[in-house]
Design brief:
Helices cover 26% and strands 25% of the residues. It is of the alpha+beta class.
Length: 349
């Protein structure tokens, strides 16, 4: 008998004895039930079997398949292989670029956060390597030299310049305050900073500019006794004091750099504190506060170190050639001559 598979529609031919039994399709391996036998005479269907059709017999199932399809031509196989390789290459390239991009992002973020610690570590490592190299070089030099030379004494650090602290003008000597900074102030309405200090047994000079013709200057004529040294002396002068032993203060200033400096002397009416220390190596330290009773409220105060030719406590004199040439205090005759010159030729401005 002959019938079609209910799954794959493959024509199956089997013996009538299989009618009503469950069999397996030889083509699709599906389970099916053989239909009941037809009214046709037995073995009639066996003669009508065609070559290549599936045929079942009692006890075994035999699948008669048609001949295998011919293989594709070589050119088609080559094209298919190339297409497959291209698809795989495109897929691999995309994955490769995704991986590269992820790696770049990770490296960039890590480098951003690790830059600071790595830089510090590298700087410390460089310093340690440099110090180790210097130590090794010194050890080698010391080992190769016949006699190790004594270490040179360290150069003394340069003295730090004192800061400039502006003083406060006051004619009350009890309220006078000497700032701890460098001598400075105001002379006839112009700012003053003492660039040079010189002292002899007769006069103390604090000036700014050239020694011969300073721009601004304060001179203090000490009025000491003959043979008396100014070292270790202290003066406190109030504006009420009037005595021959009171120091005379002279201010000098230039109104025009092309002209000689003007000057004015004060024998009383001013306030001053002056302290001089002991001479060491031709240097006389000291402190000063002086406020003048002028309309510009001239005031100079601070700490100074004056060069001097006076002998120190051991009797050793200072360096020669630095003795200052103090300005003579103006006298009444000089003042009269100046007034006469101004009335005759006019005052210079």
């Amino acid at each position: 008998m002959k019938f079609a598979c209910s799954h794959c529609k493959q024509e199956i031919e089997c013996d009538e004895l299989w009618s009503g039994h469950e069999i397996q399709c030889p083509t699709c391996q599906g389970q099916l039930v053989v239909p009941p036998k037809p009214d046709a005479p037995p073995h009639a269907s066996l003669a009508s079997a065609k070559p290549g059709q599936a045929r079942l017999t009692i006890g075994q199932s035999v699948a008669h398949r048609s001949a295998a399809p011919p293989p594709p031509p070589p050119q088609e196989l080559i094209i298919q292989q190339k297409l497959k390789q291209a698809r795989e290459g495109q897929k691999g390239s995309a994955q490769k670029w995704v991986v590269i991009g992820a790696v770049v992002v990770i490296v960039g973020v890590g480098g951003y956060f690790a830059y600071g610690p790595i830089s510090q570590w590298w700087a410390k490592r460089s310093e340690a390597a440099k110090a180790s190299s210097n130590t090794a070089t010194q050890e080698v030099a010391g080992a190769t030299s016949p006699e190790a030379a004594p270490a040179a004494p360290a150069a003394p650090e340069p003295a730090k310049e004192s800061p400039v602290v502006p003083p406060v003008w006051s004619l009350d000597v009890a309220k006078a305050t000497i700032p701890a900074g460098k001598v400075n102030g105001v002379i006839s309405g112009t700012n003053f900073v003492a660039e040079t200090a010189m002292c002899t047994a007769e006069v103390l000079r604090l000036f700014q500019g050239a020694s011969a013709s300073p721009d601004r200057e304060i001179l203090v004529y000490l009025h000491l006794n003959p043979g008396q040294s100014p070292t270790g002396h202290t003066w406190t002068v109030s504006q009420e004091m009037r005595d021959r032993s009171v120091p005379q203060v002279v201010k000098r200033w230039k109104t025009n750099p092309r002209f000689a400096p003007q000057f004015k002397a004060y024998s009383s009416g001013y306030a001053m504190k002056l302290e001089l220390g002991e001479i060491t190596n031709g240097v006389l330290p000291g402190k000063i506060f002086v406020a003048l009773p002028d309309t510009e409220q001239s005031v100079v105060a601070g700490v100074f170190k004056a060069s001097t030719t006076l002998a120190d406590a051991s009797g050793v004199g200072g360096s020669p050639g630095i003795a200052p040439s103090p300005v003579a205090a103006p006298t009444a005759t000089d003042a009269g001559r100046k007034s006469a010159m101004e009335s005759r030729y006019g005052r210079k401005r």
